[in-house]
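Give me structure tokens for this 218-residue protein.
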Amino acid sequence: MTNQTSFIFDTELHLVVLTGVSVTTLVGLRAELHNVPTSSIFLHTHREYLAHDFQRSNHANDFARWVSTALHEEALAEKLAAIDLLAFTTMESLREALINTVDEYLSALDRPSQECRAEEAFHFCQSHNFVLPTGLVAKSVNDFFEKMKKLSSASLYFHFFEARLRLGHRTNDFSRWLADQGRRDLADAIDGLNPYTRTLDELREDIVQIGIGAQGKA
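Here you go.
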């Protein structure tokens, strides 16, 4: 999106596949967190945010949920769930944070860690992603916020979550483009939204409201 006069809205299709790697212990989890591709790390920490239903558990990533339900290591589950995904700008730094969290828990544990039954094993998956145009193109800043009202959740997820972390950008696509259009104020306002505390519908509405507020000041 950088340095383009128009903003071209894309979307993404996800094909989730098994990696063939599964674990039944914390030691195994720690070892495979080091080995699996970053696309697997991203999937297991982010896929719940693409869901329309916001009835999420206290453990909003797959690792924390499995540690809680299969291994019954609730203290570690809480630590994994508490990792602030917004604090990371690369998948490798997020991978390191997950590994360090498990390492610290294991080193402080004064008993053998749990092992789950084979049928409760954690199966690492990864996602093959296919980027497609939506047909929506914003010709101006005002048009951008109008098009935002029609944007699908999958497109919003791609430009906000995927672009910032999986693709290694330091900001989301929307803010990058708005800054290029000379609207750093709007870019900063959108950057200030925490997508991990909102549903996609709420995130879309908050972005639209930023645009409405800017028009009101014009």
